[in-house]
Amino acid sequence: MRSRPLIAGALLALCAMSPGFASATDLLQVWQAAREHDPQGQVLDAARAAGAARREQAAALWRPTLGLSTSAGYSSADSRMDGAQFAAPGFGHSTGVSFGTSVEGGTATRWALGARQPLYSPERRAQQRQLSLAADAADLEWQAAQQDWMLQTAQRYFGLLLAERRLALLKQQQVAVDRAYTEAQDRYALGDQPITDSHEAAARARGLQAQVLAAANELELARQALQDSTGLAAERLQLQAPSGQLADGALAPLESWLALAQQHNPLLRLQQAQAEVAAAEVRKHGLAGSATVELVAQASRERLGGSGDYGTASNSQSQQMVGVALNLPLYTGGWRSAKLAEALSLEQKARAELERVRLQLAQQTRASWLALSSGQARLAALEQALVASRARLDATRLGRQVGDRTTLDLLNAENDAAAAELALLQARTELLQNRLQLEALAGQLDLPGLQAVNAKLQP
To answer: Can you give the pTM of this predicted structure?
Structure first.
C-alpha cells in the first residue's frame, strides 16, 4: 500500500522539474512531497515503532523464560572422606572406611537447562502497566508530531508566498521611485522643482535598494527551507494565495474549543500519560520489596574425568527439579528507598508539568480562537484600507502632476499602498494558519482539515 504514495511523490518531483508544473502547485501537493521526502517522517515512524515495541515488552514480562548454559575446560579436583561406613553384598559392613578421588588436569563439562514462569509479582505487574502507558505515550507523541509537521509545512508554504510577494512589491516600488527620481531630476534641471525633491527621491531609492536586497535574501532562505523539506525546486513553483471568503460559517463558541482541547489535545494527553508513567514508577519501586512466586524447572549435569593420584577417575552428577520458588528481598542497602524517593519527586514534577501544559493549552486555544473570530472583520478593514490607499495613490499622482503634491507625498503614497497590499495578504495567510492552529490545539487537525484550507487558495 505504501507504493502509491511513493509513486505520487516521484511523479510530483518529476513534474516539479518541468516548466508547466508552476501552474499546479498547492498546499496539498507540497504536503505530499514533504511526507515523501522529509527525513522527519522516518524519524516519527521509527519513534512510533519503538514505542509500539513496549507493548510486546509488557506482554513478555509474564511469559515463561528458558535458558541454556554450557561450559567446558580443564579442571583439577581432590576429595577425601574418612570415617565412612561401607556395605555391599558379599562384603559385609565396614566402618571407619576412607574414600579418596583425585583428578589432575582433567576435562570438566557442564550443562544446565532452566525454565521460569512468573506466577505472582506485584513489582512486575506495575512494570507491565508502566510499559503499556509508555507505548500509549509514543502514539500520542507521534500524533502531536504529525500535527506540528503539517503546521510547519503550511508555515513554510505561506512564508515563501509572503516572501515572493514582498519582493515583488518592493521591486514595483523601486521602479516607481526610480521613475520619480528621474522626473525630479528633470524638473530640477528645468527649474520647476527644488533640489530637495531630488534628494528625497534619491534617499528613498537607496533605502528601497537595501530593502530589496534583504527581501531577496529572505526569499532565498524561504525557498531553501521548502526545498529541503519537500525536494521540490521552489524557484519553479507558483504558489497559490488565499482569496475570497475565508470563513466557513459561524465559529463554534470558545468554551467548545476549550473542551475539545482539554479532551483531545495530543500534547496534553501525552503529558497525562507521562504523569501516569511516573506514578507507575512509584508503585514499581514501592512494591520492589514484595515477595515473588515463580514456577521453576531445571535439569543439569556435571562431569569431571581424567587421571589423578589413584589412577583414572571420573565424577559426574545429574539433577532435575520442578517446583515453586519464593523470593523475598530482605535488605537492599537503602537502594529501594532511595529509588522510591526519586520516583516520588519525579511524579510531583510530572504532575506540575501537566498543570503547566493545561494552562498553556488554554491560553493558546483562547488566543487562536480570538484571532480567528476577529480575522474576517480584520480582513474587511484591511481590504477597505487597501482600496483607500490605492485611491490616495491615484489622487497623489494626479496632484503631483499638477503641482499640488510633492515627490515625498507621492513616495509615501506608493509605500502605503504597497504596505496595505502586503498586510492584506499576510492577514489572509495568518487567518488560515490560525484555523489550522486551532484545529491542532483541539486535536482535530488531519488531512481533511488541510484540504479545507487548500480549497481557499487560488493561483
So the answer is: 0.79
